[in-house]
Amino acid sequence: MAVAKYIALLGALSSTAACARGAKSPQDAYQRLTVAVRAHDAARLFDVLDQETRWSWMAVHRGRREAYDITLSNVPPGPDRDKELKRLDAAALAESARDLFVRTLPESTWPELLALLGGPAPREVEGRAETEMSGRKVVFRKDDRGWGFTGLAEAAEEQKRHALSELDNLRNAAADHERASLRRNR
Question: What is the Cα–Cα distance from 86 to 166, expressed in whole angstroms?
């Protein structure tokens, strides 16, 4: 009995590792996307994203986590601070970009993604593969880890730009506050 449990555990671990590596073909990526979307499994959906989209989420995670820390250490206690900390809480508590993605993926994403399923197998052309469903293109890109879904890249890039801009503003405000504090203490 223990051997059967061990073999089942090894199978689960190897399938998890295979998802983390990326799909070997556009068809495999499309199949993984289909499984993730039909199961409403945000963790699996993150695993099927292309590398660039995942990197954007890593930047969002890192930026919002740092913004949380800056807010915690530089904004005086009160309702404004509490509001900001609550808004940044998901990133501060998330262990990884994948975890943040899972925690914050809007429920409205699922019907949009479901509409992309059921089309013909994607056709590969020079490191890209695409198919069409409901008049919308479903695009996959090949990168270092394999094939990944690019359909959430634009939204992830926008989130990244916003998070990094917000972080830059917070850093500047904290530095200004510190300089002003030093001038007052002279």
Answer: 15
Both tokens of 62, joined, read 């890192």
What is the rounded distance in angstroms from the CA atom of residue 93 to the CA atom of residue 61?
10
Give ∠ CA 163-174-162 in degrees, rounded to 5.
10
Distance CA 23, CA 50 (A): 10
Q: 69-100 burial, b for 16+ CB within 10 Å, e for fewer?
A: ebbeeebeeeeeeeebeeebebbbebeebbbb
Distance of CA 117 to the CA centre of its chain: 21
Helix/strand/coil for 107: coil
Q: For residue 153, which of 58, 29, 50 has the smallest C-alpha distance?
A: 50
**Residue 4 pLDDT > 80:** no
Residue 158 phi/psi, 5° resolution?
-65, -45
- Consecutive H or E run containing 123: strand 123-125
Q: What does the alpha-carbon distance between residue 57 and residue 157 come to, in Å, rounded to a whole number? A: 8
Enclosing H/E stretch for 140 = strand 136-143
For residue range 58-117, list pLDDT tens digits in order: 999 999 999 999 999 888 899 998 999 999 999 999 999 999 999 999 999 999 999 999
